[in-house]
Amino acid sequence: MTSTPVIDVDRLNVRYGDFHAVKDLSFQVGRGEFYALLGTNGAGKTSTLETVEGHRTPTSGTVRVLGQSPSDRAAVRPRMGIMLQESGFSPDLTVKESVRLIGELTRRADRVERVLGVVDLTRKANTKVSQLSGGEKRRLDFATAVYGAPELVFLDEPTTGLDIQSRDALWDAVDRLREGGSTIVLTTHYLEEAQQRADRIGLMHRGSFHREGTVAELTRTLPAVIRFALPPSTPEAPPKARRAGDGTFHVETFALQEDLFTLLRWARDHAVELRDLQAGPTRLDDVFRAIDD
Ligand SMILES: Nc1ncnc2c1ncn2[C@@H]1O[C@H](COP(=O)(O)OP(=O)(O)OP(=O)(O)O)[C@@H](O)[C@H]1O
User: Fold this and answer.
1) In terms of DSSP bridges, do strands 152-156 and 80-83 run parallel, antiparallel, or are they unpaired?
2) CA of 180 to the centre of ligand 1 (A)
3) Domains, in order of start, for the chain
């Protein structure tokens, strides 16, 4: 990372009384990077993000955001867009009034109509927040991240409750922000979304990083798996295949292409049909499942 990081966390500790929620955590996020902070339930992601966003004071350690202390809200707040799990818009305001309020609070320049268009709420502009569906409320929450295309955008479980079209539209809007140079920090339990998009991932467990790095770095220590079923009449299993409890067969491999080729050749030579054949690279789900308490 050559330029000054957008986020610089150094030996952060967060304690709640006797409970040590975040333990000596250090990480940096570079300008324009897409960083996903992931982890098991209770790992300390929210505690970490609340500190970075300036909502919580660290017990110890230092946090710099855009070169400033996040507690200096007047300096930092206009430069970040934060999509929380619940934004808490007033139920009596209309959608348009709520979006206008985002502009006033963040003091960023934008056009309300443009933002409504990006989050696909133009037709609901005069509807009260209390009358929105769950997915529409979530899209209104997303408006806080989009308004004025901030330099730094936090997305906390952004796609929860969104249908597939809304999810695609949200990620398109995030791509647009990235093209404009915004830095993105995502937290989600939908690991596939992080796997597809994140430049780097910090994977937390019990207050510390279990792993940190690119998807390739996180997954390379675990084998890929080829899965298939065999017809009952098959006299023998292919080499390297292990029978799982559900009767399917697994081949664990660090040489996916080579072992898949060997397996397919074996099937052809033995005139066996491999049923429900699945082969793919190691997924983040597998890395999560391998976390040992
Ligand atoms: N105000 C609080 N007082 C006491 N303990 C707290 C408080 N807030 C959080 N904790 C504890 O700190 C730990 C970390 O919580 P945090 O919300 O940061 O985790 P998380 O990674 O965001 O979890 P999840 O994925 O379940 O949302 C948890 O064990 C939680 O019970």
Assistant:
1) parallel
2) 34
3) 7-218 (3.40.50.300), 221-289 (no CATH)
